[in-house]
Amino acid sequence: IGSLDRPPDRSVNRERGLWIGILAAGGAALQALEGFIPQPVPGIKPGIANVMTLLALYGFGSRAAIEVAGIRSVLGGVALGTLLTPSFLLSLAGGLSAAAVMGGLVRLGAADPTGEPRRSSLLLGVVGVSLAGAAAHVLAQIGLVYGLLVTHPGVFLVLPALLLSALATGLLTGLAARRALARLRYNGVVFTKEGV
Q: Are 58 and 191 spatial neighbours (Cβ–Cβ below 8 Å)?
């Protein structure tokens, strides 16, 4: 009952909002940067913008990760001139799916809030959660392509190559996010679910 008597801490909400904005803008900048990297195979990108989604997930929880992924996709679409195009829809679907799957894994206890794997889990940690997010990203995009753009089963022939690339990019993204989280903690920035 005591918590009902206290007014909400607006400074925590303001700080959370500030961090969500920073992470989303950083993700959009990384997404725009990825747009200039040549793609030897269509659909295969480094996925470095997902580092910001992982930071939001481990800093503020699942909802924040989904917010960052959505805002990042919109800002990236505006920056690249792809807003409301099939490319934008694929980016949005992939990003939101990845954030939801990663958030679900963390909520189910695959990794504790600091990103370290739990001893009783499958030893996922930040890197494993990132790998699962990369796979979810690919599966959502293939599902969307099949459902809306190319309703031919041949679309699924590229799935093994895309999942293999997701393995590599998810690993690199997870390692980068783990390093960034450690660096933030080292510099005194300690994320919690309520704020920084």
A: yes
Cα separation, 175 vs 173, in Å, equals 5
> How many Å apart are CA 28 and CA 26, to the nearest integer?
5
User: 0.90 cut: is pTM over it?
Assistant: no
Tens-place pLDDT, residues 122-180: 457 899 999 999 999 999 999 999 998 888 888 898 889 899 999 999 999 999 999 99
DSSP 83-148: TTSHHHHHHHHHHHHHHHHHHHHHHTTSB-TTSPBPTTTTS-HHHHHHHHHHHHHHHHHHHHIIII
SS3 at position 57: helix
Round the CA-based radius of gyration of the chain to a whole number and report it. Answer: 17
- Encoding tokens for residue 175? 């390692």
Report d(CA 119, CA 124) in Å as an integer.
Answer: 10
pLDDT at 64 over 90: yes
DSSP state of 161: H
Contact of 172 with 133, CB cutoff 8 Å: no
